[in-house]
Write a structure and sequence with these properties.
heterodimer; A: mainly alpha; two-stranded antiparallel sheet; 12 helices; 2 strands; about 0% strand; B: alpha/beta; Rossmann fold; Alpha-Beta Plaits; 2 domains; six-stranded mixed sheet; four-stranded antiparallel sheet; 11 helices; about 30% strand; elongated
Chain lengths: ~290, ~300
């Protein structure tokens, strides 16, 4: 009765709805994080700009861009699945999903892919805008702002055109893609866990402010951990965000703070563990079906 | 006749509280079944267990022959549930929401015609492109009913569909639900309103404290348990008078109104005759049908 075709249509419908949900409020879900990323670029380029060279032949501004892209990607992947679930739980419309024949795996994949898509889309927008920015630095800050607003509408194809045209190198494109995908997936799964667990908006805000924000800020987005004292270098190795950003950055420069294969192994392990926990929660109906 | 819904010794415990206590009940295909009871009786818990929203502590439930836990996908295809609360997704309009809901059940674009038909039958055509947030309470209620129908389920469960709905819309919803039943859908209706159950349901179960305290055809239940009251308004000094003169006819006094419980309607005329013979002036009078609460009190005292 519930055929494979039914299941495919069911999963695709939920994915489509989740994508449309964030697109309907793109000003908040895409434009806002893109502008935040561009603001970081503006400020750091003004302050540090060409004065630092983090890796050989890589100035600070170019070093910063992949970190900012990945940080925005991670934060937005988390936001997408967590906000969708907590809103549906608090508004009560989660019932429309729970009454359907959608299995826990269908729910998992639809929410996960939507989270990855939003994260990647925000990342691509920052990438595209950053490309213009690298060539047109602080002399034209308003151009960056205006383009940040328009960036929400740019598609991946445009990103590729700009990428070819721009100066930011991509040494290992597959690393860039794999880390973007796994990072987005990992944070999408983490967002689902938070969304299922939380029962109030302030609990969700606490997740963002006390977990996601410190972990992303202390992950080496703005610096190489080699510039830190030895103790902080060691502490940084316990932050999973560090591996996601470092591996992603390796894809651009072919240089990183730690082995990209170690980073990949750690990111994949976290992705699998968080996915397993999320699937278990969805299967048991924890905080959803009682 | 094939069974539409079967509850077998179903219980739900929340720590010490027995929300549903060993209910066994069979609802036949094509029935219009009413589930009545006051708040906290366990009606919604029973419905939520059937919908898979709550897991039963004991027992089993099947819908159209499918176990709601073991064969949940088939069971959920067979049932459309209208929730009690006016919940909605604030990001979408009515048509989008209905199409998404159908899609979750594996319905593709070929089902869009049916979605539009449901929209039309529920008088939602003008509002089909309106965001759910902007609909009135009555319109949201209709959209919820439409949402339960988009995947063409044979069993439809309406959890207090007319709560907070004005009289005109209530009548429209009743006739629509009746039509669905005439088309062969099995309907389960939970309600506070006896009038609603009386007008619509073939059979009724009354619940209290997680148990069924009465289960019969609506006609039999009303016949067996219905009560009527005669309320008369008298002058205050007359009330004192009848307290001594009508010892064999007990009544309840509330301000200048006296309420006589009637075993049958003809008792009303004998009470009026008695008051006339005592030369007591009747200022006003009302014949009042028992409400659900009265019948319910009688039932619970009996049980």
């Amino acid at each position: 009765m519930n055929t494979f075709r039914d299941q495919f249509i069911g999963t695709w419908t939920l994915l489509k709805k989740e994508l449309l949900r964030f697109w309907r409020v793109a000003f908040q879900t895409v434009a806002a994080p893109v502008i935040t990323g561009i603001l970081y670029l503006l400020i750091f380029s003004q302050v540090l700009g060409d004065r630092l060279e983090v890796y050989e032949g890589v100035n600070y501004l170019v070093f910063l861009i992949p970190g900012l892209i990945m940080m925005s990607l991670l934060q937005n992947s988390f936001s997408n699945s967590s906000s969708s679930l907590i809103q549906a739980k608090i508004m009560g419309n989660i019932v429309f999903l729970l009454l359907t024949p959608l299995s826990y795996l269908q729910l998992f994949f639809a929410f996960l892919i939507a989270a990855i898509v939003r994260g990647m889309f925000v990342g691509i927008c920052i990438y595209v805008i950053a490309m213009f920015y690298v060539d047109l630095p602080v002399e034209h800050p308003w151009f960056v702002f205006i383009f940040a607003f328009c960036g929400g509408g740019l598609m991946g194809a445009f990103g590729m055109i700009a990428g070819i045209w721009a100066d930011l190198p991509v040494e290992h494109p597959w690393f860039v893609f794999i880390f973007a995908f796994c990072g987005g997936g990992l944070m999408g799964a983490f967002g689902m866990i938070a969304g299922i667990w939380a029962t109030r908006f302030d609990q969700m805000a606490a997740f963002g402010n006390f977990v996601i924000m410190p972990l992303s800020m202390l992950s080496g987005v703005f610096y190489s951990i080699h510039s830190l004292p030895p103790v902080w270098q060691k502490i940084s190795h316990f932050n999973p965000f560090f591996y996601m950003i470092d591996g992603f950055r390796y894809g651009f420069f072919g240089q990183s703070d730690t082995s990209p294969y170690l980073s990949l192994m750690i990111v994949l392990s976290f992705f699998i563990i968080l996915s397993f926990i999320t699937i278990r929660m969805l299967k048991s109906g924890y905080k959803l079906r009682n | 006749m094939k069974k539409a819904i079967v509850f077998k010794n179903v219980s739900k415990n929340y720590k010490q509280l027995k929300a549903v206590d060993g209910i066994s009940l069979t609802i036949e295909k094509g029935e219009f079944f009413g589930l009545l009871g006051p708040n906290g009786a366990g009606k919604s818990t029973l419905i939520n267990m059937m919908a898979g929203l709550v897991k039963p502590s004991n027992g089993s439930i099947s819908v159209m022959g499918f176990n709601v836990n073991k064969e949940y996908q088939e069971a959920r295809h067979s049932v459309g549930i209208v929730p009690q609360e006016l919940v909605f997704d604030p990001f979408f309009n009515v048509r989008e929401m209905l199409r998404f809901q159908a899609g979750y059940f594996g319905k593709d674009k070929s089902n869009d015609k049916w979605v539009d038909e449901v929209i039309e039958r529920l008088d939602l055509t003008d509002k089909a492109s309106t965001n759910m947030r902007k609909l009135s309470g009555g319109m949201k209620r209709r959209a919820l009913i439409a949402q339960a129908l988009v995947h063409r389920p044979p069993v439809i469960v309406l959890d207090e569909p007319t709560a907070g709905v004005d009289v005109e819309l209530r009548q429209k919803l009743w006739s629509f639900i009746k039509e669905l039943n005439d088309e062969g859908h099995t309907i389960v209706l939970t309600t506070h309103y006896l009038e609603e159950a009386e007008a619509l349901c073939n059979r009724v179960a009354m619940m209290k404290s997680g148990k069924i305290v009465a289960l019969d055809s609506t006609k039999n239940l009303l016949k067996e348990f219905s009560l009527k009251n005669l309320k008369v308004r008298l002058q205050k000094n007359s009330i004192k008078k009848i307290t001594t003169l009508l010892k064999e006819t007990p009544f309840l006094q509330e301000d200048d109104w006296c309420t006589f419980k009637l075993k049958k309607v003809s008792d009303a005329s004998s009470i009026i005759e008695k008051l006339n013979s005592l030369k007591i002036q009747i200022l006003d009078l009302k014949l009042i049908e028992s409400d659900l609460e009265n019948i319910f009190l009688k039932l619970t005292s009996k049980n």
